């Protein structure tokens, strides 16, 4: 019988401004050409609860876009359904550049196959703008659990089948899927406990009511460094300099448990191309700011790396998203993944 699998802090940015002047003949949308954009505040929808990596990344980006573009970029959290609720809000918004989405691997790739016909939007309903950051996932446990390595966790779970809970920031997220991959690869049973975001999930792990969890590294790293959570492994091919003493899942004997989260900006599909390109150029400039990456790297962040110079642009992000949809779709199909 196939196992059921459900996939799915802070930093400041600073750098020279990028001069983008209006050009004659640029397309119009919502009464605005890109040359006059933005002329009013922009809403940045985060499809997960506050305090998680999606929210942290969005607020970092919003701060820098506001500074560079001269209008407020306001973060709005619309959590639920593994990111689908907030993503659908943007997919159905006016395509004028004033409603943007902080998209993730979950609602931007995994969920299309996972939810199937229940998905309220499709890939063609959203336009890719730029990839902001990639991050490792980290597997960690409550301090009261008597394990200090991933191998010890596997042994403990085998000796105590179905005794452990494993938390994630929501059913259908990449964090849920990473936990399910762990169970599949290790041949262990743990009950998945989904939360409406990383903040409430980590609170339960620190309190000992959930013993094991998976999260994106940036939102968990502060608790790990302060000793409130015990990290067992990161899910990337190489160790992260942010936690150099924490081994990879491959080093722990589980190379199949590999997953890298990502966070980028999408807009409604019919947003005028000049606005998409303008925003994409701003994001590319932001991810190349040295001060940004000194701090994001300390949190475990990795650069987009979509263009030869390590940056991002709308076309490269589009190709990346399509490849992620195909990759995770195959994982969902092979694993028998589903959501209730």
Task: Examine the secondary-structure arrangement and name the CATH architecture of the largest domain.
Answer: 3-Layer(aba) Sandwich
CATH class category name of the largest domain: Alpha Beta
Distance between the termini: 17 Å
Could you list the spans in which at least 5 consecutive residues all have pLDDT below 50? 1-32
Rg, Å, rounded: 20 Å
Protein name: Tripartite-type tricarboxylate transporter receptor subunit TctC
Organism: Muricoccus pecuniae
Family: Belongs to the UPF0065 (bug) family.
Keywords: Receptor, Signal
Task: Provide an overview of this structure.
This protein folds into two domains: 38-135 and 261-335, Bordetella uptake gene, domain 1 (D-Maltodextrin-Binding Protein, domain 2, 3-Layer(aba) Sandwich); 136-234, Periplasmic binding protein-like II (D-Maltodextrin-Binding Protein, domain 2, 3-Layer(aba) Sandwich). Helix 3 packs across helix 10 (314-335). It contains ten helices and eleven strands. Strands 3, 4, 5, 6, 7, 8, 9, 10 and 11 form a nine-stranded mixed beta sheet that branches. The radius of gyration is 20 Å and the shape is globular. It is of the alpha/beta class. A hairpin with a 2-residue loop joins strand 1 (28-29) and strand 2 (32-33). Residues 1-27 form the signal peptide. It comes from Muricoccus pecuniae. InterPro entries: BUG, Bug_dom1. Keywords: Receptor, Signal.
């Amino acid at each position: 019988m196939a196992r059921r699998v459900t996939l799915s802090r802070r930093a400041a940015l600073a750098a020279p401004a990028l001069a983008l002047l209006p050009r004659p003949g640029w397309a119009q949308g919502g009464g605005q050409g890109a040359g006059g954009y933005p002329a009013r505040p922009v809403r940045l929808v985060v499809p997960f609860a506050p305090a998680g990596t999606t929210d942290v990344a969005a607020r970092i980006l919003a701060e820098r876009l506001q500074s560079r573009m001269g209008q407020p970029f306001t973060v709005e959290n619309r959590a639920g359904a593994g990111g689908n609720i907030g993503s659908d809000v943007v997919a159905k918004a006016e395509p004028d550049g004033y409603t943007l989405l902080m998209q993730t691997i979950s609602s931007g790739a995994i969920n299309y196959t996972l939810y199937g016909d229940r998905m309220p939007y499709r890939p063609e309903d959203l336009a890719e703008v730029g990839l902001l950051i990639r991050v490792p996932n980290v597997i960690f446990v409550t301090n009261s659990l008597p394990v200090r390595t991933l191998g010890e966790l596997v042994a403990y779970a085998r000796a105590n089948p179905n005794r452990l809970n494993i938390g994630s920031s929501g059913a259908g997220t990449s964090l849920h899927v990473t936990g399910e991959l762990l169970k599949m690869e290790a041949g262990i049973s743990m009950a998945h406990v989904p939360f409406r975001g990383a903040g409430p999930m980590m609170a339960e792990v620190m309190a000992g009511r959930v013993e094991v969890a998976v999260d994106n590294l940036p939102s968990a790293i502060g608790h790990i460094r302060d000793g409130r959570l015990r990290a067992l492994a990161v899910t990337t091919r190489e160790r992260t300099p942010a936690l150099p003493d924490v081994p990879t899942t491959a080093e722990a004997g589980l190379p199949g448990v590999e997953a890298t989260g990502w966070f980028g900006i999408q807009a409604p599909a019919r947003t005028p191309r000049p606005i998409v390109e303008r925003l994409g150029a701003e994001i590319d400039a932001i991810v190349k700011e040295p001060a940004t990456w000194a701090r994001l790297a300390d949190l475990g962040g990795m650069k987009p790396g979509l263009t030869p110079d390590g940056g991002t642009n709308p076309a490269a992000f589009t190709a990346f998203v399509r490849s992620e949809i195909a990759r995770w779709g195959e994982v969902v199909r092979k694993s028998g993944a589903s959501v209730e």
